[in-house]
Specification:
The chain is mostly helical. 53% of the residues lie in helices and 0% in strands. It is elongated and about 50 Å long. The chain starts with a helix and ends in a 10-residue tail after the last helix.
Amino acid sequence: MSNLLSFITSFGSSAELRSLSPEQLSERMEQQGLSAEEISVILSGDRAAIATMVKTSGDIVCCVVPEKPDDQEPDDDDEEEKDQKPQSVRAAV
């Protein structure tokens, strides 16, 4: 995985990183080996430029899906979970 993708992954999963000031964030990106151009693009928040740098188009989406064995029988808790609406979170870099 490239340094850029590694950083984007850690940024998306770390409340600490998202709470850093731009100066602190820039320093952290330098420590992770990102180039000056990559740092500049991330700090600008230009989603199209970031997508171009990671060689993708469209939205970059990450989700965590818990594993559930196929042979597991539903219990009362499963019925309660079905009644709840799913929630989604969207974060922009």
